[in-house]
Amino acid sequence: MTSTLTLSLRARNANRVKTRYQICLIHPFDPRGEKVGGLETYIRDFITFHPDDTDLLFIGVDSTGDLRLGEIHRLTFRGRTFDFLPILQYSDAQAREAARSIRTSLTGQFFVALLRHFGLIARLIRSRRCSIDLRRVCVEGPIFPAANVVWPG
Hints:
Layout: H1 4-14, E1 21-26, H2 38-49, E2 54-62, E3 73-77, E4 80-89, H3 92-96, H4 106-116, H5 118-128, E5 131-134, E6 142-144, E7 149-150
Parallel strand pairs: 1-2, 1-5, 2-4
Antiparallel strand pairs: 3-4, 6-7
């Protein structure tokens, strides 16, 4: 015989909406592109193998020039669908070249693009209640040498 407590718990949980987890990945590359490396492999595998109850928002770079910047695009990669927000167009050929200055570097331009799209990115992260996965945030040495500002460490 099933108790009334068990029946009431079953009834309460019968229509419960399953929680979807929200993760935002931020990295200056395009998972569709040719760039290879440890972090790029990590992110491609994260997209491929993330749990079914998890939604991904990837903020990155459009390496082919076929997407509008600052707009979310629903992409499929290795059979998995995710939201992609490109904030910078930077080709794979450019990424392979050594930058002559921080202004022409992928990292420098991606940082400026993050600032340019900061309002949109903040609204998306807040509205989705995302956890953020951000790699390579460690800085060694002076941040602004002329001002003698050093990263705490």
